Amino acid sequence: MRNNREKQTEEILLKEYNRYYRLAYSYVHNEQDALDIVQESAYRAMKDCDKVNNENYLSTWIYRIVINCSLEFLRKHKKKELSEEFYDNIIELGSYEGEEENLCSRWELNDILENLNEKDKSVIVLRYFEDFKLDEIAHITGENINTVKARLYRALKKMNKEIVSHKT
Question: Is 141 within 8 Å of 123 (Cβ atoms)?
Fold first, then answer.
């Protein structure tokens, strides 16, 4: 018989499934691989959900599992495929200062994102593609909020330089 925590975890998994899928897809750029990652993440979440002390953190804990499974998959498979589907719902990302002339194309954005390290890319994806607040990102990544802010600032600054170099 399933306990209350398992029921809560299952409800969250069902409710947030599309977001978990998009997150996994943002790493692997392949539909089937993203589905496999979400399935593995769901399995791990259901198996270990009793280890989460505060039920209010179940959702962000599952996001962390999805990120870890995605990174684990990339390390195992060393895949870096482009896919147009990933960018169908993306807003164009410009400079952190909001300079409209620095907006870039989907393909340029993909190149720029792929040049970021895994932690920086995670912060960018969670903030701009999944609309998480900085404190939520800190909890998901297990980092201090100031570290997340610094990582976001550095990543955006690096992306801005790349965008400018693509424009010239």
Answer: yes
